[in-house]
Amino acid sequence: MLFSSMTFISIFLPLVCGIYLLAKKEFHNMILLIASIIFYAWEEPRFLAIMLLTILVNYFGAIWVNKWVKYRKILLFLTIVANLSFLIYFKYFNFIIQNINNLGGHISTLDIVMPIGISFYTFQALSYVIDVYRGECKVQKDIYKLALYICLFPQLIAGPIVKYHDISEQIDNRDVSFEKVIYGVKRFVFGLSKKVLIANTMGLVADKIFSQSPDMFSTPIAWLGAICYSLQLFFDFSGYSDMAIGLGSIFGFKFLENFNYPYISKSITEFWRRWHISLSSWFKQYVYISLGGNRGGKCKTVRNLGIVFLLTGIWHGAAWNFVFWGIWHGMFIIFEKLINIKELEPKLNMLWQKILMHIYCILVFVIGWVMFRADNLHYGGKYILNMFGLGVGVNINNTYPLLYYFNGQELIVFVIAILCCTPIFKNIKLYTSETETLKQKCKGALINTFMILLFILSISSIASATYNPFIYFRF
Q1: Which residue in 106, 316, 329, 378 is the catalytic one?
Q2: Catalytic residue at 316?
Q3: Cα(460)–Cα(103) distance, rounded to whole angstroms?
Q4: Where exactly are the structural domains of the chain?
Q5: Could you give the maximum distance between any two Cα atoms of the chain, in Å?
Q6: For residue 115, is the peptide bond before it cis, meaning its omega torsion is within 30 degrees of 0?
Q7: pLDDT digit string (tens) for 254-303?
Q8: How many CA atoms lie within 13 A of 326 on its CB side?
């Protein structure tokens, strides 16, 4: 069930909210747990068993890690292996077999369908058992509360990845207030409009271009496709995160932010502090630090960073283009670490220096997104060569004009998308009244009117459009 579907917006969400807000506090967790199970099983009920098995593995695994202190390392290892076994089988098994066959093997692949959101809820489950092992939280002996943490529907299938120590107290005790509900509704509408009005529009343009061979369009069109996909990906994923955070607020939860204007970054290091923050922090806390972090000299730091970004690429998908994408970002992270970018950036005081740094960062992540979007390494390589006028065999006679890909409405959305990648609207202040109280009332009225307009436009778009994918569902 998509957050941006009429079924969710007009039936599921109002029904769950109504029951939840009217029920006594002691029933809140059970209502959310039942709603989450229905939400997940709506499209593919057969995958519910995998998620329930994940819950059981981590429930007993954490109890045993906490109880059998002498064998806690072995028990932690076995629990992690069990979690990763589900993920590897459903997501990577056929990829592994295909590569073995490429080396001369003759193993048949299996007809495997990957459960939606398995990468996200597996990492959340791992967070819990590792937190228990490290003593950062108490073991959860109520299996229903642990099940709620792992399968809570606002962030179940596309994040943000919520770490157990960040939310354990909220599962046991949280308050629902009018202010939280209103904030949650506004945040949900804002995310919905980002997804439906911007991401979907940019996705239509990007799909037109990426559906063709790179020798069928010119260099400017190649750049248009790359930029539109970059915008689609950001507004698609950040829009989902906004909706998840908004839904969490309605039910009394506070989820950490997942995006912080990543496209204004001036380095790839800064980019990863702003992009998919929950995944970055997960790898930092549970992989990078566990490997030793930056302790032990530059060589070990480079090794640890390389492993983290290799795993980041693999986490996103079972294909070599995702591996390349992870290595691509890892190379620049390592380079910036070696030149000590944190100390270098404050010294770049000239405007042209900051502009060059920003252009450098944009080039790196846009090129990376091309490989992320490409069906394979070959296509991605040809596309990137075309972006720099190095494509071989581009048939100009067969290329379509710019207007084939980009009409007036899409141009307007494109400009709005570029502006919304920056905090320009967030920083706009109203100076229309002399008193602070009056100014706040005017600001509040404008925001409420704007949110209602966004909601109406989003619902109209959902009702009339057939193109409504969520990119990160496949991860």
Answers
A1: 316
A2: yes
A3: 52
A4: 6-174, 181-420
A5: 78
A6: no
A7: 999 999 999 999 999 999 999 999 999 999 999 999 998 888 888 999 99
A8: 20
